[in-house]
Amino acid sequence: MSYLEFIYIADLLGVAVFAVTGAIAAPGKRIDILGVIVLGIVTSLGGGTIRDISLDLHPLVWVGDTTYLWVAISSSVIAFFASRRIQSPRRTLLFLDALGLALFSILGLQKALAAGAPAEVAVMMAVITGVAGGMIRDLLTGQIPLVLQRNGELYATCALMGALAYIFVYGRLGEPSPWLDISAMAIIFISRMASLVAGLQLPEFIVRGHRLESPAEARNLENTEQ
């Protein structure tokens, strides 16, 4: 298998994984099969679309190669019917989301570098490609995006760490390689899963002397003001 074939297969796998996360986020939301397909498409192709538009790359990846679109649709349909028979716990969504984050972040980084973007821009595109689709999915299903949740542990930070590690090693190798890709993806996936297990979080912004209200206190305060 050539390096380009490896990248293409990994990209399609990322599309399939993120499409499934979009579909299994739908149960309980009273969304029909068309809605599930829409969720799968925007989750799997949203980040890459924003990346391509930001870098002025045309045609968009799924416009130039409709295989991406069909993989997203078929994965969503399969997940729709499978979820009606197999209960998918939230940890399944988190596991697949971490896998999709790892795949898309590094592939987005590579595409930005191939387009001639500076390293810092490529790192930003890696994070956007990895998290934007999941943000759209969460917003459409009425959830606070994982990347913005204080109790969501490390998320975009994992994509950032993997992208920076890739850039550091790539700068010394001078050329991409499947092992570099896999290693950077592993950093993202393992750090994301470790943050879920260990509850790792970034420090909050707190003004000295200010005590944060608990969620219950915040709700009571809102009710009092109303």
Walk me through this protein's architecture.
This protein is globular. Helix 5 runs parallel beside helix 7. The protein has 226 residues and is mostly helical. Helix content is 72%, strand content 0%. The protein has one domain (3-225). It is found in: Cell membrane.
SSE diagram, text form:
Elements: H1 3-24, H2 33-54, H3 61-64, H4 67-83, H5 90-114, H6 119-140, H7 156-173, H8 178-198, H9 215-225
Properties at a glance:
cell membrane; transmembrane; transmembrane helix; globular; Membrane protein; mainly alpha; 226 residues; Gly_transporter
Q: Determine the structural class based on helices, strands and strand pairing.
A: mainly alpha
- Biggest sheet, in brief? none
Secondary structure tally, helices = 9
Order of helices and strands: HHHHHHHHH
Distance between the termini: 63 Å
List low-pLDDT spans.
none
Count structural domains.
Answer: 1
How many whole angstroms does the radius of gyration measure?
19 Å
